[in-house]
Design goal:
single chain, mainly beta, 7-stranded parallel beta sheet, 21 strands, 46% strand, globular
Amino acid sequence: HAAVFNRGNITNGSYVFHLKDATNVTLDSLELVGANEGLRIEGASHDATLSNSIVRNHLIGARITSTASRAAFLDSDFLANTGNFGTQEVMIVEGDDARIEGNRIHDNEGTAMRIDLSAANTIVRGNDIFNNPGLAIQADGSNDLIEQNTIHGNATSQFGPSALQVRQAIL
């Protein structure tokens, strides 16, 4: 069973967990609820992992800022996040060498995942991404690897029913 952390405050700057300049932190089997951002990893943070957890009811589910590196979101469930298109995606990856693997990203109100231009070498593998009205994955970073994901039931856009937008990535 997951331990539930309910922030109960979605105002800008509120986080359930805020890792700043943290090294080798693992958050496992948790439920993060009700903040502006469920998890924010920033500063000189590296090798942070969120695994086997539920991230729900935030504007932004999880963000890796451009100064953080080697973060991983593994085998977790991201749902019912309410961020809009363009700036409040469910997952925002701005840092290098991130791994997004084995997650279920579904039933959110905007785009599921954005890999920013500032990010490099992001791996997105084995995720099930469905029922999001925005794009499933917007990959703008360099040398991103996107493979073995199941993408279905997301918005139909100019990029087709899978709602995938990719630049500079390896598919």
